[in-house]
Amino acid sequence: MALPIKAAAPVLLVGCGKMGSALLQGWLDEGLEPQDVFIVEPFADSLAQFKERGVTIVSEASDLSPGLAPSTLILAVKPQMMDEAAPVYRSLLSSRCLVVSIAAGKTIGFFEEIYGADTAIVRVMPNTPAAISKGISVLCANGSVSTDQKAAAEFLMSAVGLTDWIEDEDLINPVTALSGGGPAYVFLLVETLTEAGVKAGLSEALSKRLALHTVAGAGALAEQASEEPAQLRKNVTSPGGTTLEALNVLMAEDGLQPLMTRAIQAATDRSRELAG
User: Fold this and answer.
1) Which residue among 90, 91, 122, 257 is least crowded, i.e. fewest CB within 10 A of its CB?
2) Both 26 and 155 in a single domain?
3) Per-residue confidence at 223, pLDDT binned at 50, 70, 90?
4) Total domains, the chain
């Protein structure tokens, strides 16, 4: 791990909300030295625990040391703030600096227009389970990203979960629809299971507990099992039993699969619209 850490440092993180804080905690846990991390976050008071460990935290870019030359600039501000925030850091970039964006909807081309077409840029789509180091991030690099920089970007994002790469940037759109929005769909599943249990006669408290732990446990089992999800489903389904009756509804021609396919396509289309 020494090479990716060396290639990534020093790191300048712009925006340290929930995702930024999760990344920062993961980096420190993985061995990135606090003195190699610089944070710009207007609400810096909430990051006192990191400041005590030696991380440099400022409220504005103008408070950074004039001599700072980051090897990696990570932009973790909200997409609607990026037009204003990104250009501020142009003067800090050297020819060897890697720019990593985790802002949904902002393309590699958007950052190339700001920092130059020959700037090394990696676009990332993470998801919210990163907050507990259970996320998955998909990365896409432009042609200026070196092998060492790819390793550095992967190290930085693997601090909060799994990573994968794509070469076609357009695939970020279905990635956004599937894994970016996916946690919301799972939370909705918990909600709908809870409501269905209540309508079947269970108390709301018991139904919610059953729904939550069933979804969490099944997800953990699917992650650890050597069998495919389809086989795990069959393992739970007894011929002529209660589960089969439910699956006959969920797997009908107008059941869950066509509904989820339409949902993912709708989200994919909207992601492309937002990207312009």
Assistant:
1) 91
2) yes
3) very high
4) 2
Residue 56 neighbours by CB under 8 Å, 6+ apart: 35, 37, 38, 39
Residues 193 and 157 both lie in one domain: no
- Both structure tokens of 93: 């970039």
163 neighbors 136 (Cβ within 8 angstroms): yes
- Look up tokens 């695939």; give the residue: 171
Listed residues 118, 139, 172: the one ending a domain: 172
148-206 pLDDT, tens per residue? 999 999 999 999 999 999 999 999 999 999 999 999 999 999 999 999 999 999 999 99
Instruction: Provide the CATH number for the domain around residue 112.
Output: 3.40.50.720
Residue type, 214: T
Which of 172, 207, 231 is the last residue before a domain boundary?
Answer: 172
Task: State whether 147 and 16 are in the same domain.
Answer: yes
Which residues span the domain enclosing 234? 180-275
CA dihedral 129, 130, 135, 137 (to 10 degrees): 130
Instruction: Name residue 162's beta-bridge partners.
Output: 136
Residue 230: its H or E element: helix 229-236
Does residue 6 register a pLDDT over 80?
no
